[in-house]
Amino acid sequence: MAAVDEIATPGSVEQTAPSRVRIVRSARKRDLLTFLMVLGPGLIVMEADNDAGAVSTYTQAGAQYGTQLLWLLLLLLPITYFVQEMVARLGIATGEGHAAMIYRRFGKWWGLFSLIDLQLVNFLTLVTEFAAISLALGKMGLNPTIAVPVAAIGLMALVLTGSYLRWERIVLFLCLLDVTWFVLAMMCRPHLGQAVHDTLVPHVPVGGLTANLVFLMIAIVGTTIAPWQLFFQQSCVADKRLRFSDLKSARLDTLVGACFTILVAGAMMLVGDKLYREHIPFTDPAQMAVALGPIAGTFMRNALLLLMVNAAALGTTTISLSSAWAYGEVKGWPHSLCKSLKDAPGFYAFYVLCVAAAAAIVLIPGAPLQLIILGVQVLAGVMLPSAIIFLQLLLNDRELLGDGFVNRPWNNVVNWTIIGVLFLLSLVLAAQVVAPNLFPH
Question: What angle do CA 5, 6, 7 make, to 5 degrees?
Fold first, then answer.
């Protein structure tokens, strides 16, 4: 007979009553239930990175180059997994967030450097999320001066519940709505044979290595792996109080999230490919939705606009939380979604401030949104390699993690290779900003 085990929610996220303990006799069923209870941080952190900026980047890649950059997404799949697996492992091993660990192990100066960079990039990214909400809902006939504040209030209410599990379930539902991208991709009738070839065979698109191509490829990398993800997932794992025994399921959660995110990104690129094949000019996803309406129907138009809003909502709640968690950890405030507003006022106030300020900037007439978008790309590209170096050094600290959670030699080879590639891309991005004529146009 199979062993009998007790299954409870991981780490007792919220106090688990005895009546909720379930006796499971099947090892297979026990593993499945454990995974379902651990599921959340990995999938959310990955799919939330398919935010408004990602929708714009991936659809633009499809609109300009068809399916010729799908191979880059496949290349990024293992990179996204390995980076976020380290974060999950560190969160489980320490029970603390990423900002707190940097302060503890590297000192106040480096901790302050990483925190200021994170907050700046996160806030500017939040502005772009609300800009997307304003643009999409405006195309649907809603007044942005009303729609943006209502969206901001809804995103505040999503977090101000005092329940991590309630927040997680709602956000997981929003993540799964992105399955609609697969439906839209198939409605665009892509050339599947060509798409498979372009996914499996890396190549430079027709036209060669131009400035626009280089910038777009770097944007794809920066969109797929963002600095806030490191802080978010580790704090999320700590807040959910996952245990050592949950590591296997947490890794699977992260792998599922990485695969789902890359597949959704590919579907976005296939939707953009429709514009490429129809020779329709691309300016932004909202304009794309309007342009595809007469060709693919009203469902396509409205679904694209609503998916833009969904992507921005996912990005807003996760990015704001990564900022609030990081600041709360450094200040020593109570910082948990399991605590009520009364018990963690500073944590929730910082989240509300981030959301409200970003929404307010979008409503300012003539706000330099394009400059902010460019600033986000440059700052994120500069910050990401340094953020991953902190992560890599922490994962090699045997005193901190012990032999069970420290990086293996092959982990270090893979991770330092990733860091080297990201540094190279950051240098190329910086060079292109300083010398715009570095690559042919």
Answer: 115
Give bridge partners of residue 5 from the DSSP assignment.
Answer: 24
Nearest to 54 by CA among 128, 123, 154, 117: 128
Is residue 70 within 8 A of residue 263, CB to CB? The reply is no
Count of beta carbons in the 10 Å neighbourhood of residue 23: 9
In order along its 441 residues, the chain shows pLDDT tens digits of 333 344 444 544 444 444 455 566 677 788 888 888 889 999 999 999 899 888 988 999 999 999 999 999 999 999 899 889 999 999 998 888 888 889 888 888 888 888 888 898 899 889 989 988 998 998 999 998 999 999 999 999 999 987 888 999 999 999 999 999 999 999 999 999 999 999 999 888 887 777 788 878 888 887 777 888 999 999 999 889 888 889 999 999 999 999 999 999 999 999 999 999 999 888 888 888 988 888 888 999 999 999 999 999 999 999 999 999 999 999 989 999 989 999 999 999 999 999 999 999 999 887 766 566 656 766 666 677 777 888 889 989 888 888 888 888 888 888 888 878 877 776 776 666 556 665 565
Question: Using CA atoms, how far apart are residues 14 and 17, in angstroms rounded to an integer?
Answer: 9
* Whether the Cβ atoms of residue 438 and residue 211 lie closer than 8 Å to each other: yes
pTM score of the predicted model: 0.88
C-alpha 288/C-alpha 215 separation (Å) is 21
Cβ atoms of 123 and 113 within 8 Å: the answer is: no
Tokens of residue 224, six digits: 């797929």
